[in-house]
Design a protein that fits this description.
Distance between the termini of chain A: 46 Å
Radius of gyration of chain A: 18 Å
Strand content of chain A: under 5%
Helix content of chain A: over 70%
Largest sheet of chain A: none
CATH topology of the largest domain in chain A: Tetracycline Repressor, domain 2
Largest interface: A-B, 42 and 42 residues
Number of strands of chain A: 0
CATH class of the largest domain in chain A: Mainly Alpha
CATH superfamily of the largest domain in chain A: Tetracycline Repressor, domain 2
Structural class of chain A: mainly alpha
CATH architecture of the largest domain in chain A: Orthogonal Bundle
Number of domains of chain A: 2
Number of helices of chain A: 9
Shape of chain A: elongated
Oligomer: homodimer
Chain lengths: ~210, ~210
């Protein structure tokens, strides 16, 4: 799966072949084909792997309070230069390069994932897995918001709708950055979300609105 | 330009040829080539046309108050079933079909524009024009917010950052809808923006924070 990540960063999705991934993984193409019939099967498994990584990292934060968890989740969707975390994309990896390399990787990987998503209208397997990934990420964020509302840390809001705003705004900003080269988009949107959503949740926390 | 819009809805961007557009416009392919050397030139002109349409419609609202204008701008980025307007995409058209057809058109056109955007990293002309379009739309929204702050209708916020959140959140939601078929995304995000941004601007309006 790490090899798939590297191959996607290096070649993007459209030009990616099973052979590229086999080369990155240093295994034979026939061994790879033994595990995955097609590039599509492998990519779906890779998307599932990203989600598992997200879930693992999410579980690592279960001792944090809701505000800390929510801020951490937002930070994980940002490129390295805007974030204290070293994650990339929906689930990320732990590559430990310098900022510049990380950023280029964030952009290349983000673009590759968008390429997969552009195939979703025509390919059920991608669509279903991508919807599952977004749905689970949104559900975890909504759970954190609900926790915060229950403990009185946050004011009473529609958790699902709030989670959707956070995910879609950061997704839109990331897409703007990786397709149009507007590098400030994710950081600016995160700052706006902080002001209008996160701070607003906390500021009125516990008053039950 | 209307023919380009129809051809994009019918065929998407990748499969689109100059001949398709000539057919839709009911002109000869050689006449079309007389005006536009390449499909790229024509598409850039089309993106410019979308922006001009946006500007015209924006100017039509200059008698409205800032809150009304801002809500109208958000509504224009929504599909027909979520919106009272009949616009499509960044600038839209005035096709007057029933809701179902309009929605399918919103999705097909949205996907075609995303396809163009996916070419932006490799094609300067698309990137520059798409950045211009997004920049102008964002600037107009920021102007409306600044107007509202000046007249005391809105509380004092960073207008550019707020505009970016509005545009990117709606853009992310639209992309989620047209690629993954999550039809509720634009409406849900608009509702969240209403709650966290628009209502928050108005609620504290005039108190100078």
């Amino acid at each position: 799966m790490e090899a798939t990540y590297r191959a996607l960063c290096a070649r993007g999705f459209a030009r990616l072949t099973m052979q590229n991934i086999a080369d990155e993984a240093d295994v034979s193409s026939s061994l790879l084909h033994y595990h995955y019939d097609t590039k599509r099967d492998l990519l779906v498994a890779f998307l599932r792997y990203l989600l598992e990584r997200f879930e693992e990292k999410f579980e690592d934060t279960e001792d944090e309070d809701p505000e800390e968890r929510l801020r951490g989740l937002v930070a994980r969707m940002l490129p390295e230069d805007e974030s204290v975390e070293s994650d990339v994309g929906d689930g990320g990896t732990d590559a430990a390069d310098d900022g510049g390399t990380e950023d280029a990787e964030y952009d290349r990987f983000g673009l590759a994932i968008l390429e997969v998503r552009m195939q979703a209208p025509y390919e059920d397997a991608y669509r279903e897995q991508l919807r599952t990934n977004m749905g689970v990420i949104r559900a975890r964020i909504a759970d954190v918001i609900r926790d915060g509302v229950e403990t009185g840390a946050f004011r009473d809001v529609d958790a699902d709708r709030t989670a959707r705003l956070l995910v879609d705004a950061l997704d839109g900003a990331r897409s703007e950055r990786v397709t149009l080269g507007d590098d400030d988009a994710p950081g600016e949107v995160a700052a706006a979300l902080d002001e209008f959503v996160l701070s607003s949740l906390v500021a009125d926390g516990g008053d039950g609105r």
